Amino acid sequence: MKSAKSRLTVKFDFDLMQAICDNTEVFNNEVGYILRTHCDLKYKEWRYVPEQERAPLREKLQTLFDVDLEDANVRKAIDRQMQRAWHGYRRTLRDHFKTVGGAGDITNAKSKPYEGVSKPDWEYLCNCWSDPSYLV
């Protein structure tokens, strides 16, 4: 791991639960990247992602950023940004699903996974989005 001097500083507004500093854009982009590449897509919503899966995602941020993960408010602010990124990514995936056939042509939709999503993960998501009980 890099020393704290070489990592970027991130300051948070704990009322807004978001980063507010010169490095905010880099921080938010890294959160999105970490979620897209390391988070399991099987959860319907971010709130269902268990702590044992969230903690390693937060820890990955320490490679680039000097963040105090011992501080509960910092963890909450990071989780809030992860939630925002999660919803944005899932929305992008669902929009792609609809574009390539959606529930009306599930076979075609399954054959065209979103870039960077494994075939098993994509098929799982397609099955979920095609199930009316899942969408409730």
From TrEMBL:
<protein>
    <submittedName>
        <fullName>Uncharacterized protein</fullName>
    </submittedName>
</protein>
